[in-house]
Amino acid sequence: MSKKAYTEQEREQVGRDLLSVGLEMLSQRGLKNTRLQDILQAVGISKPFFYGNYYTSLAELVIHIIDYEMALLLQAAKDDAARQDISLEEKINRLNQMAVHSRQHHFFVMTQEEEMWVYKHLSPVEFEVYQQGQARFYEQVLALWQIPQEKCSPKELGNLILSVVLIYNSAARSLPFFFPEELEQTAKAQATALSRYLASLADADK
Question: pTM for this one?
Answer without folding.
Answer: 0.90
